[in-house]
Amino acid sequence: MRQFVLKLVLFLAPLLGVWMFLEWKLAHYPNTLMQKRAFLERQAPTLRVFVVGTSVEYGGVSPSQFDCPGINMANPFQTIFLNAEIVRRFAPILPQLRLVLFGISYGAFEAQLGDSPASEAAYLYRHFLGTPLDSGINFWDPRTFSVVAAYGQDLALGQLFSGFGLPVTDNFDSSGWLSAEGVFDPGREAEIVPLVDRLQAPLKLEHIAENVHAVENMFALLQPRHVETVFITAPATIQIRRHLDTVRLERTEALINDLAARYHTTYMNYFTDPRFTTEDFRDPMHFNRNGALKFSRILNEDIIRPRGICAADRVASPDEPSTSGPGAPEASPAVPTPS
Question: CATH 3.40.190.10: does it fit domain 31-304?
Fold first, then answer.
């Protein structure tokens, strides 16, 4: 028996060593979340604007166009729950924070990462940004406690055998914005129907309460610090707008109206903004580089500059009336209906 145990230990020791090495290496190997966090922490003393959202804001809002420093912490599949928790996690280390630009996309209140095709990403958020798991995630899953398990066997072993040469980060700039090229071809509208079907498939009414509660918790942290929140909806092409569910948009309108009334927030609705054409998009709903810079300048003119967010001696009040720059849509808690 003793000999068997000794052989078992000798067999398992190298495997355990490899596992521990992989855990340490992958926990420190740069990925998108880790690098964004590093950019945020490096600039923390000066940041005044905090952007969160999905892939729409990730490639659509460039803080380089703002009058003062900002960070874009948006990412693909990043739900309202995660956006609110990311703000709560990092706002306390940003002494100059004055404004959160909170992206609201189609069906946002009905989305949950744990109930989506990208559910495994929730564990990576926990490991690298310190956010909690949403209710659709099993806390006792090994991925909660192991970075190797969170990455998955294929990627972990692929990194090991490649000498950790596989890229796992996007080519975004130091503000967290991902620039993308390309121009959307409106003649490809037939491809939009399956795209909308994929967007809508994981959306469920049961997720609304958790997302609303996460936003409420965010306001509980921000408002005592006089940090204003402005909800924004980015423009989309008319080609995709006419395929969206009007009932779902109206439901989002009611939720935004309720939050606006209770927390004195402002909602800037650019969804149907006529200043944007297909030339500004790389696909039906994502900006190309030129469109993103254009939209970012508009956000600066319509939201940041009128509120004096960048003034050295100015602290915005959360219940202060909002103003809009020339050509901006009227500030409203309403969500657009497709046209």
Answer: no
